[in-house]
Amino acid sequence: RPSRTARRELPAATKGYAVGAMAAGVSQNSLAKQLPVAQGSLSKLFARTKERAEASKLPLWDSHLYETEPGRGAPEKLLTAEQKDAVIAIATQNREAREKQSWQAISDGDFDHIQLPTRLSVSSFENIMYEAGYARRAPGFKPTLDDAQRKRRLQWAIEHNPDKHEYGDGLGFNFRRVIYTDETPARVGEQRGMLRSWAKADGTYAPDVKRPKIRNNCALQFYGSFTYDTKGPYYIYGKESPEAKKQAKQALDEENQRNKKQREKLVPTARAALGELGESEAN
């Protein structure tokens, strides 16, 4: 992942040259190729300068328009190598620190005690980690398909392709008419799917850090169905307590017993009625 960089303020002379050129009709695309700035930034610069000129009733060539605006381009207080190492050491000191999100570490004041020249922002903290080779990586794992399974899946998809030869020929199966069902477990008190840990590309996870993404224990189970461009019905099954399981089994046994008695009454009656009918009438 590329390192994030702080916003860079152009020198006043460069801004004046760019605005003057754009006012004279030079295209932003050609200017972007000459200057170390994107075309979108040039467009914003030109619009912002015109607004300031109209508000202050100054011509576009007035030098006051290109001075650093309040709140923009504040001089950055650089950290020393020792201070950056201290930040990295805190962020990687244990499992809890590695898995903590950047905004949470800043909010908790994890770096306030190391006497930095200014309080770290989320982007500054992440830049330090990225420059040191760290990234937010997922320690979880789940079973993947092997090459043979991937080939079988591809072959099946090709054989059932709705458009076998050209777009819209309709010679394959129409998957838009298929109703798909799926389920997902939920566990109370856990973060699922987005858990990341600060680690380097060549780092290895301790066995107690890695966790399977597919687990059997859950607090509830969500079942749903869907088709093309349409959401279907769903149902949420909660985790049953031993008492709830006992009551459910008792209710099911009672229902089965009632159905059995009903069948015992209806079956002889139906057989007797069929016996009185002739073969042609029965059919």
TrEMBL record:
Composition bias, Basic and acidic residues: 243-258
One GO MF term: nucleic acid binding
InterPro entries reported for this sequence: RNaseH_sf
Region called Disordered, residue ranges: 243-283
Highest taxon in the source lineage: Eukaryota
Entries under Gene3D superfamilies matching the protein: Ribonuclease H-like superfamily/Ribonuclease H
Record protein name field: Transposase Tc1-like domain-containing protein
Organism per entry: Bimuria novae-zelandiae CBS 107.79
